[in-house]
Amino acid sequence: MSRLHFRLAAVLLAVLLAGLIAITWRGADLAEGALLPETVHKAETLGHSLGELTERALDYGIPLTRLVGVDDLYRRTLEGNPELAFIALYRRDDGVLLFAAGPAPADGGAVATSDTETVVLPIGGERGWVARLVIGLDADYARRLVFGLWIDLAIVLAVTALVALELISLTFGAGAHHAFEAVEARLAALRRGELRLFPPVADTGRFGRLAQRLDAAVGALGERFARLGDRATRARATGRLPPAAGRELAALEARFAVDATKAPAPVSALSVRAVVFVFMLAEELTRPFLPAFIRDHAMALPGLSAEVVISLPLVLFLAIVALAQPFLGGMTKAVGRGRALGAGCALGIAGHLGMSLAPDFVAIVVARAITAAGFALVFVSAQGVIIDTTSTQTRGRALAVFIGAILVAGLCGPPIGGILADQFGTRTAFLAAAALAALSLGITLRTVPRGGGQRSGASGVDWTVFRVVARSPVLIALFFGCALPAKLILTAVCFFLVPLHLAGLEYDQAVIGRVMMLYALAMVVLVPVFANLSDRFDRRVEFVAAGGMLAGLTAIYALADTGSAWVMAAMLLQLGIAQALSIAAQSALVGVYAHRLGAGVDETALYGMFRLIERSGSALGPALAGALLGWYGFDLALAVIAGLAGLGALGFAGLTLGRRGGSGAVAPVSTGAE
Amino acid sequence: MTDTPRAGRLGRRPLLGLIGRAAALPFAASVAGAAPAVAADRPPFRIYRITYRGRTAVEEGFESYLAANNVPVTYIDRDAARDPARVPGFVEEIRELRPDLVYTWGTSVTLGVAGRYDGPDDGRHIRDLPIVFALVSAPVRSGIVPDRAAPGRNVTGAVHVIPLDIQLRAMAAYRPFTRLGVLYTPTEPNSIALVDQLRTLQASLGFTLITRAFALDADGRPTVEGAEARIAEIKAAGADWLYLLPDTFLGTQYHRVVPAALAEALPTFGAAELAIRRGGALAALISRYTSVGRLAASKAMRILVDRAPPQELPIETLKRFSMIVNMPVAQALEIYPPIEMLNYAEVITK
């Protein structure tokens, strides 16, 4: 993001946030103001009905001290009304506490001086006032309620801000702003003293022409330098080049980064980012209602339990995504990344439309398979576009931008999808997903060049690489000790165990949504930070090991009160931090090891193998978690899965930290979002 | 609230759903407001009614239900005046008048009019006109129908007996118990069957049964002599309640049995309304007669208006019952009902 772009986005965002915060503040304020009188009113109503019952008993001649079942009645009343702190009945004469539930003062005289807000009712019956019924209000209740409200509003704020940022990116991605940015980038390079070439700008406006003139000037300079270089080479061949001149030329080349030969393909990583964001948003929309939709249309299959049938479309989706990726890398290169990207978007449209119209379970399975193929195509080709069009220096940041788009889609999609499904029905929500996929196709056609015709060396998964991996303990540790458990713990704990567990404890969807969001939030914020840090300090092995061990440490949450949403939230937050630590570093290490293993190891093929193993972890996750949950319950299932990740990371650390080496190229990064 | 008894041990809570509040009707769906399916110009249905001991609240409930549903009816009322010998004469009259429906009160009248389902068709019973009964406690055991769910003949109706486990839960709601005392007549098959049923409930509901039988005289007839001593034995064995079964002989001896229990500070729980209204029991769970009448009327309406065949209409019992608490006895025993029971129980104050 350029500085101008950044400033504009910041201003727009600031205006938007200011408005939203003002509305939020006012709303929460109103709610808090209305809450206390409402609570007092409710306590009075309850008090009247309890008091009336007591008086009826007294009227029947039951002595005050011999009332039966009063503590029990108060206790159940308290349980049904969380805004109350205690209910107590005191004798009038001496203030003796007769019956109570909750932390009531032991003496009636202490009620007046207590700082708890109370409702007091005299209890009489026919023989006059004999007792006082005191209901204490729970001050924390209002605070808890308003706190929950604030969290909800903060989530709305965050989602709105993130969507707004994406929209800004989208609008700034092409046209005049692109030219504006292009000029800015060129001037920034010149200021750094770099005389390198940029992708040509097609825009014919003032900024476009300026960029073209700059390109022409720098290009001419480059050509002259190239001619000089040729002459120097010829002179060196005939021995007439003074050594000092040769050194001078090399110094010039290094000093000004003059390089006439490399002009990157004219494609903006930003436009791919827009495609990916919109396409992934379509898929993420369906996350909240997809399982229930499948369940409602599930059919009985001989020999399979209902749960397994329901999980079939989900497992099929993950399996297609996992198995297709290694093959798609070469294929998309051969047909052209842009074309493949468009085809993926089109498959997405077909898949979501199919879900919207699906009459039965078979149609759902087919539609999900089509969507899965589209998902895999879009992911691989978009990643390919970035790899093809960036140098090793710029690839890390470009990929971080790409992953950011996926993570933001994962953060914003579910709440929006939930609202759509609630308001307009599930099938309409699928239509909305199809419309988003269509939008991503439109952006692809407009902004991403088709490419293509490039012969790819590796057009399929290269199983010979498997032998390379099998012979290298370090690669085994990285692939099976770090990459596989990382994805496994994600789909097993984050996508399966925790939501199921919390739903089983009857937490409402809003709470579960908030808890789940913490993981995505940690990823969005921390992945770029840790990616930068691990690159800058060249400590990728340490980051991978630390991330894996931190993830493994979530096993200790099994000892805590796993029935609490707070505990689950803390665990997912820790898991998010752990994954963010290791994810970028993991894939970067694949490149490092490919280089270190030397000739005969194709980097692309090694990546293919890495992705395959990683995604097998994704597909295995729900299945393993389901089995463990059935056998041992939630706590132990959590401990076992987290323990696996921790042990894997320990093994990797043990193998590598003794002989740590430098890093190589920044490599394609996995998202942790699928 | 639930309409069916929940399984489980005896505590105060599980029963409450079974006890109707004043306004609750088990079949409210078809009460007032339902669109009448009867043409306005139709001549009224003729219902031939035979009571056993004069008009009761059952007939009131029966009439009010049909009136609320705008079913036009004229009643032909006859009373057996506790004499089953009068019933054959009513059967003769029914043959002449050919009413749309026959209503019968109690087991003896119903058997007299309808006959056993497996008895000979000798022309002494009504087998071609629909009959709706009320206040028959055991329609299958008394041979009126082979099956309550599907009577299979021209008879259906409303049963007023409350299932035993529901009675026990009501007792526990008033005062939880682990030992239950019963004094029964060893010559009454009905009582013996009930005691057997109580024995089978011991394990599932978690209580111990303490039984004593009335003594028999030289002729083998039950006698109340020695009842006080037997009640003292029951109390000494640790009984928390004395359950007054719907035992015919016991029903005639409340004036001896209940005061004896009171003297032993042993609370009594009645299965029949008389046990508390006249017998002085501490508490009882009963089917209200008006509710039984309404339930019977709902069957009559299905037959008359909807043309439903009686052989397909299941014989039903009420789903909600009435708790009655005898407050003077509670005060004498100093065993008071839980305060919440006052929300739904009928309280007798003198």
Q: Can you offer a commentary on this structure?
A:
- The complex is a heterodimer of chains A (about 675) and B (about 350).
- Chain A is mostly helical and about 675 residues long.
- Chain A has four domains: about 25-145, PAS domain (Beta-Lactamase, 2-Layer Sandwich); about 175-265, no CATH class; about 270-460, Up-down Bundle (Growth Hormone, Chain: A), CATH 1.20.1250; about 465-674, MFS general substrate transporter like domains (Growth Hormone, Chain: A).
- Helix content of chain A is about 75%, strand content about 5%.
- Chain A contains 20 helices and four strands.
- Chain A has helices spanning about 5-60, 70-80, 140-170, 175-190, 205-235, 245-255, 270-285, 290-295, 305-335, 335-355, 360-390, 390-425, 425-445, 465-470, 475-505, 510-535, 540-550, 565-595, 605-630, 635-655; strands spanning about 85-90, 95-100, 120-125, 130-135.
- Chain A has a four-stranded antiparallel beta sheet.
- In chain A, helix 9 (about 305-335) runs parallel beside helix 11.
- The longest helix of chain A is centred in the first third of the chain and has 57 residues, at about 5-60.
- Chain A is elongated.
- The radius of gyration of chain B is 21 Å and the shape is globular.
- In chain B, helix 11 links the parallel strand 14 (about 320-325) and strand 15 (about 345-350).
- In chain B, the strands form three sheets. A seven-stranded mixed beta sheet of chain B has the order 7-6-10-11-12-14-15, sandwiched between helices. Chain B has a six-stranded parallel beta sheet with strand order 2-1-3-4-5-13, sandwiched between helices.
- At the A-B interface, helix 1 and helix 2 of A face helix 11 of B.
